[in-house]
Amino acid sequence: MPDRHPESPSPASGHWGRFLQSWGASLLEGLYPGRCALCLDPAPAGLCAGCVSDLARPGPSCPTCAEPLPFTGGCPSCQRSPPALDAVSTPFVYAWPLSHLLLAYKGGGRPQLARPLGSLLAGHLPETATGAVDRVIPVPLHEGRLVRRGFNQAEELARVLCRRRGLFVDTRSVTRVRSTPSQQGLSRRARRANLRGAFAVSADLSGERILLLDDVMTTGTTLNELADAVRRAGATRVTAVALARA
């Protein structure tokens, strides 16, 4: 596998910038079908075994919130603020080169990367993470952000995962009713305040076991707020998965 990897994409400027960037990515992938998204080695699933082996994996972490645990014993974060989630699974760490792919995927106009990234999640997520769930709910985007981006990155990953695992993906029961400012740079408390009341559930989830899905988990605030919403709709068990933990 070559040592040199492509650099992280720069944000596209304006509609035509996004169009040209997406068109260029589509052309590249059309010229190299079945090739690794990072090094162009043969890779039917979109990422070769060599590049996958380069991806950072988490060390010991809390099974409930996925926070790293530098010592044995209880999780300080869960003790301070018990989460709404029953369990979280994140098979990778948000670090280069996976961070490069995720940035290209949702910020660089490359929705085609949903297939290799979704396959990566499906191939490395423990079977226990998706066992005995009634539906998978990807974190929804607000309508305005969905229009600007053109797709929901969590939803597309969920579709790939659910096809591979034989699960039902539900993209209709939960909507994001408030357009919230970016969470970047906010404290945990500010993130919670920023997302309060952001999600509305239209379905009766009484007695159901729900699996939430996002692309990246940072503090877990978004997933916990969504978990609160589906619990209010009657869900009895709420777990979550994300491709990477920041």
Task: Please specify the SSE layout and strand pairing.
Elements: H1 14-31, H2 49-54, H3 76-80, E1 87-89, E2 92-93, H4 98-107, H5 114-124, H6 127-130, E3 135-138, H7 143-149, H8 153-165, E4 174-176, H9 188-195, E5 199-201, E6 209-217, H10 221-232, E7 237-245
Parallel strand pairs: 1-7, 2-7, 3-6, 6-7
Antiparallel strand pairs: 4-5
Helix pairs in contact: 5-8
What does this structure look like?
This protein is of the alpha/beta class. The chain has a single domain, classed as Rossmann fold (3-Layer(aba) Sandwich). Helices cover 38% and strands 13% of the residues. Strands 1, 2, 3, 6 and 7 form a five-stranded parallel sheet that branches. Strands 4-5 form a two-stranded antiparallel ribbon. The radius of gyration is 18 Å and the shape is globular. The chain starts with 13 loop residues before the first helix and ends with a strand. The model is unreliable at 1-32 (pLDDT under 50).
Search tags:
globular; 5-stranded parallel beta sheet; about 250 residues; Rossmann fold; disordered N terminus; alpha/beta
CATH architecture: 3-Layer(aba) Sandwich
Order of helices and strands: HHHEEHHHEHHEHEEHE
Q: What is the residue-averaged pLDDT? A: 84
Regions with pLDDT < 50 over 5+ consecutive residues?
A: 1-32
Structural class: alpha/beta
CATH T-level topology: Rossmann fold
Radius of gyration: 18 Å
Major sheet size, sense and barrel closure: 5 strands, parallel
Q: What count of structural domains? A: 1
Number of helices: 10
Number of strands: 7
Percentage of residues assigned to helices: 25-40%
Strand content: 5-15%
Principal-axes geometry comes out as globular
Distance between the termini: 26 Å
CATH class category name: Alpha Beta
